[in-house]
Design brief:
Radius of gyration: 46 Å
Helix content: over 70%
Number of strands: 0
Shape: rod-shaped
Distance between the termini: 155 Å
Length: 117
């Protein structure tokens, strides 16, 4: 019976020693005091990576919206250029018609006034 108790005590001591001396995978070369710091740094890096991914998605969404708005503005610019060209032609035609009408009136008035002088 004593032998069984001694074996149990020995096994318990072995398990206790193993519990305190086990190394975490990837941290075998680290100082035991730095394990918590390593875990904190790893968590901080993961959090920053998540924030960067969220920022990237947000920026891509904004860029997509801006591209859509620029395409719309380009369409309006093209339409406005055509309208300006059309209006310029119409103005030139109107000015020409006004000048022709003025010349005709001037000739008419010259004829009418020419006989009085």
């Amino acid at each position: 019976m004593k032998t069984l108790i001694l074996i149990i005590i020995f096994l318990m001591m072995y398990l206790i020693i193993q519990h305190f001396t086990t190394t975490v995978e990837g941290l075998a070369n680290c100082n035991q005091d730095q394990h918590d710091l390593t875990y904190k740094n790893t968590a901080a890096i993961e959090q920053q990576q998540t924030e960067l991914n969220d920022l990237k998605k947000n920026m891509e969404s904004h860029l997509k919206t801006l591209r859509t708005e620029v395409k719309g503005l380009n369409t309006h610019i093209s339409k406005n250029k055509k309208d300006v060209a059309t209006n310029a032609t119409a103005i030139k035609s109107s000015v020409k018609n006004i000048k022709n009408a003025a010349n005709q009136k001037s000739k008419k008035l010259d004829k009418a006034g020419g006989g009085l002088s």
